[in-house]
Predict the structure.
Amino acid sequence: MSTAPTLVIMAAGAARRYGGLKQLAPVGPDGQAIMEYSIYDAVRAGFGKVVLVVRREFESTFCESFVDRARGRVDIAFAFQEPDAYVPAGLELPERPKPWGTAHAVLCAKPEVAGPMAVINADDFYGPSALAAIGEFLGALATDDTTSAAMVGYSLSNTLSDHGTVNRGVCEVSDAGQLLNVVERFEIGRAGDAAQFQDPDQGAQPLPLDTVVSMNLWGYPPAMLEMLEERFANFLAAQPDASTEYELPTVTKQLMADGKLTVRVLPTDERWCGMTYQDDLPIAQARLDELVTAGVYPELLW
């Protein structure tokens, strides 16, 4: 059996649509950030460590907000996503003011991860059963398993925002529950009793509300980090322009196509809430208040 899994939290985003440091926006009754609930759920699900991938200048802010208190419950480490991290020496690249995307963020956590890992966004609420499902999957991985991965699949209807459109990874899933493909759809919003997305060529296109979507809750074997590093070097060798990003869903799909990964979809009925827009804050606060009142979470987490 594998060692206790690590939870990698991607918290270095710029939050252009939200404005401000949405990763630490107060949603809980005592001002807790959304990621604190994910950490709490991960501890309950058997995770042994948390790695926060942040911008270096915000380390002290995270510590003051909750990390110093939460470290009494779980091992928490920082990793810093910087543009030159894991860039091969001597490689000439265009000047880039920001890091290289979500796969690069996970790669930056490599020194702090020693076993299987789950990956989440800092500003998404996933729900306790979702973290429990991915924790159970990772906890059952054999130590020599290099190919088995998982993704928690949400119903689109449980992930929409009432204050604007969202982008989602729309999933194609086999009858056996294996992920076949993920296609990014943009500007998804409600449209009567269904939803629709904007296709760049065909305009508005319908999308059923029960469509399975990815919210970037992934589980990977330890070998994933080596594969991310190897493919990052290849990605950079192709001389990407300054706006191109090294994205986790894209790399995962490439590894699936190459026979390096098989991804099991773990369905969940959890209801997503997140911080895409400023107007999402009171909705997230109401959702967490509801869960605290129901006894799912204590009022004080740490």
About this structure: The mean pLDDT is 93. The radius of gyration is 19 Å. The helical segments are 34-44, 59-70, 102-108, 128-139, 223-237, 248-257, 280-293. The chain has one domain: 6-293.
